[in-house]
Amino acid sequence: MTLLAVGLAFVAGGTGRAAGAGGEVSLSLGQATEKALASSQQVRLAELAVERDRLGVREARNLASTMRDLQDMPLPAESGPSGPGKIDVDLAVEVGPGQAQDALYVSERNVEAVKRQVQADAEQAYFSALLAQEAVKVRQESLRLAEEQLRLARVGLEAGVRARAEVLAAEVQVAQARAALQTEEKNRELAFAALRQKLGLPAETRITLTDPLAPGELPATTLDEALRHATENSLSLYQLSRGVEHQKKVVEIVARYLPGTFRHRKELYTQKQLEIRLEDARNQLELAVRGAYLDMVNAHAQIAQYDKAIEQAEENLRLQRLRYEAGLGTGVEVDGAASQLTAVRLQRLKAVYDFRVSRSKFDLLVQGPPVSTQVPAGQAAPGAPAGFGA
Q1: Could you give the CA distance from residue 17 to residue 35 in angstroms, rounded to a whole number?
Q2: What is the DSSP letter of 293?
Q3: pLDDT the model gives residue 22
Q4: For position 369, what pLDDT does the model report?
Q5: Which residues of 58-69 are buried (b: 16+ CB within 10 A; e: fewer)?
Q6: What PANTHER family is this protein classified in (predicted)?
Q7: What is the rounded distance in angstroms from the CA atom of residue 58 to the CA atom of residue 103?
Q8: What is the pLDDT of residues 192-238, one digit of tens each?
Q9: Residue 73 domain-assigned?
Q10: In 3D, which of 225, 227, 187, 200 has the Cα closest to residue 25?
Q11: CA 280-286-290 angle, 5° bins
Q12: 214 Ramachandran zone, left/alpha/beta (phi>0; psi -120 to 50)
C-alpha cells in the first residue's frame, strides 16, 4: 500500500477514532506534544506532499529527456498549435528538473517543520490550560479571603463594634469574588477544550496536567546569533531564494530568443517581484525573532518583580487584618489589600505564561538544522545561492 493510500485511510478513519470514549488522562508537556503529533492531520498531509513531489521529479525528468531531443531542431521561439517552441523546450530541460527537485527538497524538510509547528501549538495550548487552571486557584483563594472577612465583619456586628455597612460591603466583596471565580472557571473550560482539540482527544476527556506553570531560563544565545540561526533555518527563505534563482534562468532563456520583447520584460518583472518577496520575508523573519526575543526577556524580568510584589502584598494583607481585628482598621482597607494580592498573583501567572509562550515561539524560529546546507549533492538543482543566510 502506498503512503498516499495509507494517508487517505487515516483521514477517513480518524473521525471515528476521535469520537471514542473519553475517560481520564494525565499529561506532561512532553506527552501532550507527542499526542498532538500522533493525531495531527497536518503532518499526514505534509508526508503525502513528499510522495506527490517525488512523482513530480520523475515527471520533470521524463519531460526533460523527451524535450532534449528537440533542442537541435529548427523550432519557433514560442509554442504554438504545431508544437512546442524553443523557449518551452529549454525551460523543460534547464529549469523544470531543478524546480521539481527543489519542490521535493522543500516538502521533505517541511515534514519536520510541520511537526515542530504542531509541537509548538500544543505547547502553547498546554500553557494556556495551565494559566487558566492556576487562575482558578487564585480566584478560589480570593473568595476564601472575602468570606473570611465577611465572617469577621459579622462577628464584629454581633459584638457591637462594627457597623452593618461593613457587613454589607463584605457581602459585596464575596459576591464579586464568586463572580470572578465563575468567569475563570469558564475560561478554564474553554482552555481545556482547546487543548483537547489540539491533542485530538474526545470532548469528554478529563485532562490532568502534571507539569507546573513554572518560569524557565533564558536561552544562552544572543539576539544576533538568534537572527543568524533563524535565517539559516528558514525553509520559506530557502524556497523564495531558490525561486529567484530559477526565475533568473527563465529570464536568461527567454532573452536568448525574444530579447527586449513583452515576454522578456514580463519575466524580468516576475523576477523583481520574487526578489522583493524574498527581501520582505527576511525583514518579517527578523521582526518576528526580535519580537519573540524581547517579549521573552521582558516577561522573564517581570516574573522576579512580581515575586517581590507578592511578598509585599501578602505582608500588607497580614498587617491590615491585624489592624482590623484590633479595631484600628476598616474592612475597606482589608478588602483593598486582598484585591491587590489577587491582582499581583494573576499578573505573575500571566508573566510566566508570556515567558513560556514567547520562549516557545522563539525556539520555533531559531532552532533546527540549517536549510541552506542540506541539499544532497548531485541530487538537487544548484544549491542555495551565494549569500543565502548572510
Answers
A1: 14
A2: H
A3: 62
A4: 67
A5: eebeebbeebee
A6: OUTER MEMBRANE PROTEIN TOLC
A7: 12
A8: 999 999 999 999 999 999 999 998 899 999 999 999 999 998 999 99
A9: yes
A10: 200
A11: 145
A12: beta
Distance CA 346, CA 351 (A): 9
Number of domains in the chain: 1
Measured CA to CA, the distance from residue 129 to residue 209 in angstroms comes to 8
Look at residue 103 and tell me if it is in a domain: yes
**In this structure, what CATH number is given to the domain that contains residue 305?**
1.20.1600.10
- CA gap 165, 363 in Å, rounded: 55
| 3-state SS class at 26 | strand
| Whether 225 contacts 360, CB under 8 Å | no
Residue listed under C-alpha cell 482589608: 334
Interacting residues of 171 by C-beta distance below 8 A, sequence separation 6+: 150
Going by C-alpha positions, the residue among 387, 378, 389, 370 that lies closest to residue 98 is: 378
C-alpha closest to that of 366 among 279, 277, 296, 280: 296
23 in Cβ contact with 205 (< 8 Å): yes
Looking at this protein, which amino acid is placed at residue 158? Answer: E
* In a domain? residue 276: yes
